[in-house]
């Protein structure tokens, strides 16, 4: 039977629970739900209470992915500073020098000319997937951690590119189809991150020891 008590969106509750350690899953999610029902929903209303709840979910996600996301952010900012990312937006082909070839191999390592799908990115996504599984013992959390890391890296990359080349920020408004291209590139990066994160989580599950079980003493 469906509960009549107000609750946040089910997907938000499920996401929150998947981000918590097994030992904290019931207590933290229960306390947050109790505060939502007893305090936030009556005083803020449904919409603002849901936003309050989602802020906690995003905070938990950021706490989980922060080490991996910061490394990816640093990597992407370095790409922009070195001008490697300009290869994606070059209007005319650039001469293939030995240095340019080495940069492509080191930074991209991918057959797809798109941001967020290089070999170095894959290593960070593997780490995120491994870290997510180690914390929660859930493969889906490893995928979520890697996908979230990919999203942060992608966003910072294009922000840095826009700061370095302001004309690129104005381009989508004069050619709206560029928004479609950017959305497609983001989906590619997110899908790649989630896939590699799943591999990292599965590998961690195979190699990690089983979580200790509590033995009941009579």
List keywords for this structure.
218 residues; mainly alpha; 8 helices; 0% strand
Q: Average pLDDT across residues?
A: 84
This entry's quaternary arrangement is single chain
Instruction: Compute the number of helices.
Output: 8
Output the helix-strand order. Answer: HHHHHHHH
Low-confidence spans: pLDDT under 50, at least 5 residues?
Answer: 212-218
Strand content is under 5%
The major β-sheet equals: none
* Secondary structure: number of strands: 0
What is the CA-atom radius of gyration, in angstroms? 21 Å
End-to-end span in angstroms? 36 Å
**Fraction in helix:** over 70%
Shape field: globular
Instruction: Label the structural class.
Output: mainly alpha
Summarize the structure in words:
With 218 residues, the protein is mostly helical. It has 8 helices and no strands. It has helices spanning 10-18, 25-44, 46-82, 98-107, 119-136, 139-164, 166-174, 177-207. The protein has a domain at 64-207. The relative contact order is 0.12. α2 (25-44) packs across α3 (46-82). The model is unreliable at 212-218 (pLDDT under 50). The longest helix has 37 residues, at 46-82. The chain is globular, with a radius of gyration of 21 Å.
